[in-house]
Design brief:
The complex is a heterodimer of chains A (about 625) and B (about 325). Chain A folds into 3 domains: about 30-55 and about 205-300 and about 595-630, Periplasmic binding protein-like II (D-Maltodextrin-Binding Protein, domain 2, 3-Layer(aba) Sandwich), CATH 3.40.190; about 80-195, Dipeptide-binding Protein, domain 1, CATH 3.90.76; about 305-425 and about 490-590, Dipeptide-binding Protein, Domain 3 (Dipeptide-binding Protein, domain 3). In chain A, helix 14 links the parallel strand 22 (about 455-460) and strand 23 (about 485-490). Chain A is of the alpha+beta class and about 625 residues long. Chain A starts with a helix and ends with a strand. Chain A is about 30% helix and about 15% strand. A 5-stranded mixed β-sheet of chain A has the order 23-22-24-15-25. Chain A has a 4-stranded mixed β-sheet with strand order 1-11-10-9. Chain B has helices at about 1-30, 35-45, 55-65, 75-85, 100-135, 140-150, 155-170, 190-225, 230-240, 245-270, 275-280, 285-295, 300-325. The radius of gyration of chain B is 25 Å and the shape is globular. Chain B has 13 helices and no strands. Chain B has about 325 residues and is mainly alpha-helical. The chains are: A alpha+beta (about 625), B mainly alpha (about 325). The interface between A and B is large, with 80 and 77 residues.
Chain lengths: ~625, ~325
Amino acid sequence: MAKLKACLLAISLVVACQIALAQDEEPEAPPLQELPREQTLILQNPEGTIRNPGWFNLWVSGAGGGLSTGLQQLMMDTFWYIDPNQGIDGPNYNSLATGPAEYNDDYTEMTVRLREGVYWSDGVEFTADDVVYTVETQMNTPGMGWSGAFSQQVERVEALDDYTVRFTLNAPNSRFHSIFSVRWNGAWIMPKHIFEEVDNVLEYDFNPPVGLGPYTLHSFDPNGDWYIWEKREDWDRTAMAEFGEPAPQYVIYRNGGPTDRRLIEMRNGNLDVVHDLTPEGMFAIVQQDPTARGWFSGFPYAHPDPTLPMVIFNHQNEKFQDRRVRWALTLMLDARALSMASYRGAATLTAIAIPPTGTHPDDYHIPMQEWVSNFTLEAGGQAFQPYNPDLTLQIADMVRGQFGDQVPTDEDEIRRAFGYGWWEQNLEAAAALLEEAGFTRRGNDWYMPNGERFSIRVMIPPDGVINRLGTMIAQNWSQAGVAAQVEAAPDSWDRQSVGDFEVNIAWSIETWGGHPDLSFFLDSWHSQYLAEPGELQPARNWQRWSHPELDRIIEEVRRTDFYDLEANIELGKQFIQLMVEEMPVIPIMSYNVFSVVSERYWTGYPTAENPYANPVNNWANSRYILTQLESTQ
Amino acid sequence: MRAYLWFVAKRALQLLAIVFVGISASFFISHLSPINPVEQTLGRITTRSNISPEAIASLRAALTDMYGVDEPLWNRFVNFWVRFVQGDMGPSLIAFPTPAMTLIQRALPWTVGLLSVTVVITWLVGNLLGGLAGYYQNNRLLKAFGVLAMGVQPIPYYIVAFILLIVFGFVWPVLPISGGFAMNVRPGWTPEFVASVIRHAILPATSIVLVGMGLWFLGMRALVSNIITEDYVTYAELAGVKRSRIVGSYVIRNAMIPQLTALAMTLGGVFSGTVITEQVFSYPGLGTLLVDAVNGGDYGLVVAVTSVAIIAVAVAIFVVDLIYPILDPRIRVE
């Protein structure tokens, strides 16, 4: 027995020594008692465990350091931010810039005036030299995140004085400034005085980081599970100061783990903000924790993300080149079933190719209601209007039985939460369209004009709401006589990029959310970028669709001032009309994020009633939320 | 003695051959993966930014050159072995440019610490109780333990882990449910750190012990049940040898040989981590690292992790082979 004890003791000592030695070179974590809970905000880092936790050089591509650790939210800065929602003072924030980008008449020059009195966290003043250094360094260093963009587009960058920078472009581009516009990511400014001392910027870990944001790194887990940030004493010497003092003294980003663990940690008071949950997880947490709430205080709780889950046809596949076939497949879908299967009814549907989030309902969805209601199709010699504006009201009624008072009753509220309608399932019209396209039906089975069975492989991710959505889409098609087969692919995004799919359930439309400009996703839809079958398609025209009218709209956008909202909205409407008429993809719904906050320690989070920011806490613009929070303790 | 040395030399050569074949196989299998690490990295960069298509092409060229994926597979294989014998497994793609071995060194102590302790405890207790249950077949307590072991054994591991997580993290929240140590503890050789590590290891360790012990228990009980029918046990009992001596020196000892072999292989397997445990409890070990590497298309890191596991298992079997003659006098090297 004594030998056994000695053996166990020796093993324990060896193991403890191994672990202790492995941590020796890493920074130290503070005792938690130095981080009073009432001054500490704890958020879930959706990136999970960070594999290269000591790496903060976010200008190097794919280095394994995390961005959603607080690094890009709390420490970094650049000229502008765009919020997918309303923003504190409008969705466009001037951060390091004092105003919008100033272009010359033909959009070949962009001048930026910089804010004075902004200092790096080590006390050095931020000037135009930092901007010039950032751009020139990346132009000269392939492998950095923005090196390709800058080297392709910038002919010259110069500091006109300490606070003015001018970019001379290789070609006219009215959207060049969007490189420096942040929702989640952007061209962050580098501290020249740090990086110019480094031999190889690609191998420099930038640890500890020096930033322009109101927080500095306090400590981090050498295993990559948590990061602690501390408010700078001179937070008022950052661009954020214009919007107020950030409330928490400490901000912790930590790995939340799987859904069940996130729920438990929030219920136990160890997480204030959960990035995302399943619908079931959301329903459970509001029952378990009275301090927890989602974007909407009741059903459907979720925040509509500016991404648009959809049916993506591969237009280089012969099956989907006839508009009548694409419309027939649309009319086979039952939106009620899609909503219930994916989000258990908590979906925000959209019939048009714009996600129903941020300012888009006011910019596009509401103004387009009349046009889309009057939109007419012809099938079997009869004209009909496929749009049903009451369909989302029906879904609200369907879930009211289970969720009762949680479901809004006001029609405007219902439409904001559930969407403004969708296409009514119409199997007869779908059949007529297929027959006009040369298809034949034997029993309930459809055959293509070449005599082969009309079959579709539907690629979906292996899990999550999109998996459930795709499964229901395939089921709808199958019930209507199409031999649809679901193919769950862990690498669906990679396969989509090279066109290795027939139909994919994903998204190729992602907007700013808080601004009506569509260039964020639309510019790469131009036919000039169309890849050959099998070759990698540049993001985001993964449907590989081209159309002369589409090219015309894109070229118009390129010549239109970003800040001319009226002109941008008009072009956006033309795009939407083209998408409805041609139906190159079938828009379904916004990607609803079940972002949950606990009001146990902090209040003042953005909500549907006060939508001043996107609540998803890994988006860089979430830093503005910190200025609106109040401690409850 | 000469025969034994010759045996050792032959086994050492076999060991090298096994390691070479195993690691080469893992290299080729992982490199046949359809996931392109350059495209994977590009995907991460371009999904959330507005880089122009021309810029992506430029970035792709830079990444392809950086990662060396445009070289023929045979060149990559030769380069891999040249670097391998120098202890260099190349950079990780998911944590570029951090060397893969650095990531392994960071994760290894956690996995080895958790698994070696739990495996040894499970093995000792499971075999001891199994041996006693096999010999004292009418003992009620040991019978009850047998029923419990047979009841727990078929339950999938992740169910047991999840039940522990719910019970001690949610219903009666007294134990930490994730991580290797608390945020409030400074990593280092201090009582606070060691206590925090142990506290965070309780739930994952308990889940492993609960499931693993039953297997050893049932295996040992079956072995002992056969051994007690042997003549020498009957003779010992008839000769009046004390029962405690019979069970300890004659029965359990003789039943230990196959259990020792299995222990060695299990300990070797410790170096490949335990994926489900680490996923459920967010334990910072090799299993989590391996999952991240697979998901990230980081085949260099996958090969590095599997290579460590292959070497560990092969060496463990090698050592067992060498000590067999010492443990069991019936085995002779010819």
